[in-house]
UniProtKB/TrEMBL annotation:
Domain HTH tetR-type stretches: 4-64
Gene3D superfamilies: Tetracycline Repressor, domain 2 (1.10.357.10)
The protein, known as: TetR family transcriptional regulator
Entry keyword set: DNA-binding
UniProt DNA-binding region: 27-46
PROSITE patterns on file: HTH_TETR_2
Molecular function in Gene Ontology: DNA-binding transcription factor activity; transcription cis-regulatory region binding
Length: 185
């Protein structure tokens, strides 16, 4: 295995571990064990646990951006249709459970100056990407992102997404979102 492949293997293990346990509770030993490498090797690759978390957050946010960029938008559609099409991309985002969880752990860890700086930057890039792809104004982009974050939180609570636990209030919210004909409107 090349160094780049080994680094990617460690980063994938880190995304899984941080998604499960969060930043504070995840140990680099756990990540090393998942990746099949030594803990000193993880540190040699990424420096600190903080730097590894930032790399994991960047990987997750990059995947989120990739999902939105891969969405086939018709340039002739109006803003609402483009947002609706982008909203359907949330199914991919939410099905890859590590994505919303690591994003939420990044938000929760934002009191750490380094993590906070990276989380704000990456979240802002996602916001601007949605704005750019859809042509939506600030209000519509904010509404789209707010609904997306609600779905993200609900997925983290396991009341939305592929393996959702049926809870009446969550079902009501999901029906309302689906009824608006836009998963993120």
């Amino acid at each position: 295995m090349t160094a780049a492949e080994r680094s990617e293997q460690v980063l994938t293990a880190a995304v899984q571990a941080f998604a499960e346990s969060g930043y504070a509770a995840t140990k680099t030993d756990d990540i090393a064990r998942r990746a099949g490498v030594s803990q000193p090797y993880v540190i040699r690759l990424f420096g600190t646990k903080q730097q590894l978390f930032v790399a994991a957050l960047n990987k997750v946010c990059g995947r989120i951006e990739e999902v939105f960029r891969a969405t086939e938008l018709d340039p002739n559609d109006d803003v609402e249709d483009k947002l609706c099409t982008l909203g359907k991309s949330f199914d991919v985002f939410l099905a890859e459970r590590e994505l919303p969880l690591v994003l939420l752990h990044g938000v929760a860890g934002s009191s750490d100056p380094v993590i906070g700086e990276h989380t704000r930057d990456r979240f802002g890039r996602i916001y601007r990407l949605i704005e750019e792809l859809s042509g939506a104004d600030t209000h519509r982009t904010r509404t789209f992102v707010a609904t997306g974050m609600l779905l993200t939180i609900m997925t983290a609570m396991q009341v939305a997404g592929p393996d959702a636990i049926a809870v009446p209030w969550a079902q009501e919210v999901l029906v309302d979102i689906e009824g608006s004909n836009n998963p993120a409107s």
